[in-house]
């Protein structure tokens, strides 16, 4: 019916174009006739031009209103959603129900390849393994060493046979058939997935066998990545460095001892408990970390410690960011931790290179950046650790980081509150809480040794790819090799 309507419309359109052409011709003739002076010629021409045109039936055409396809589009979209949901549900049922996979040829009996597979790889019952085998025990349950090696050997022979037959077909000038003919004539097309998956599993099995052999040689050896040195060396270097700075400042009488709680308004009026000019302490000698590194020669060493520590902090934060993406997946907490960690490192560089006695404004700006961002960083990392924790050990690390976070928060608040007071005792307490806060934050970075011990080349691959290789990225990588993701059905029929 729709084609009939379209045909009628085309016919009417052609007739309307003819009528328009005729009307234009009449218009030109009438224009010429209006300029004539001969009345007889005018009357004769007018009678011929004023007659019927033969297209009067076109005035009775009824034009159909505009038809919208919105309802049809909505119906198709709804049908598409229903089909997708139904297919997902049914596929999950099929994946749970199918326990055995057999590869057969259509309309053919047992072939040589099937006999080899069933003789060398005897699968009576598929093991109830929901995921791919990842350990040696899983590989043994999957089929055993001999069965897996037999499967690989059989598939290698099939590949040689297929390559030979394909080359003969090319030399003979055979015409390539359709996809169905390829599937019937070359069973390797349907079993190509098995070839690739067997190769991948055989390589993984060889790697696991090598690891087991190394563990047998050295059962007490604990493998860890060399990157674990980075979070361990940061507390060792920085905590030792700032205490060396304090010792140098104390030796040069630039600050007072931490255990001293007696201060003078000026060195001209000494307290009765103090004796000698060496023990005269004022507010300028409060052992704040900034005061310890304010004057040379300790200021040079203080700048070196801060700059080196900042670089190590940036590296730890970046590797932690990549490690989370590699093991789990990127998230807002991970990205925010990367940003705050790098901002903290930048503030620490400013704080260490602009001493409080020489550039007070820049020094306080650096401190105002470094201290709050470091506090925010440990909070984000504590939350991220709890979010990603799955084992008891990971939860223990999360509890440890939470305790360090709470202690550092209390120390930072008390240090800031006491620093604003004018009392000698509160100023001294502010310095002590500042030391406690810095030591706790540095120790918090040292806890990343638990994650860095298991770091591998895949973490560096994440950084090389710009932080885009997570579990989803690995699934795409497997699919590019020809295999399904870990949650897809392995039914190859």
UniProtKB/TrEMBL annotation:
Ranges where the CWH43-like N-terminal domain occurs: 227-453
Region (Disordered): 162-182
UniProt membrane topology term: Multi-pass membrane protein
Pfam family, one: TRIM_CC
InterPro entries: CWH43_N, DRAM/TMEM150_Autophagy_Mod, TRIM8/14/16/25/29/45/65_CC
This protein's record includes keyword Transmembrane: yes
GO CC terms: endomembrane system
Primary location: membrane
Positions of the TRIM8/14/16/25/29/45/65 coiled-coil region domain: 3-88
Entry's localization field: Endomembrane system
Transmembrane segments: 226-251, 301-319, 331-352, 364-386, 398-419, 431-450
Keywords for the protein's UniProt record, in alphabetical order: Membrane, Transmembrane, Transmembrane helix
UniProt record similarity statement: Belongs to the DRAM/TMEM150 family.
Protein name from the UniProt record: Transmembrane protein 150A-like
Species for this entry: Takifugu bimaculatus
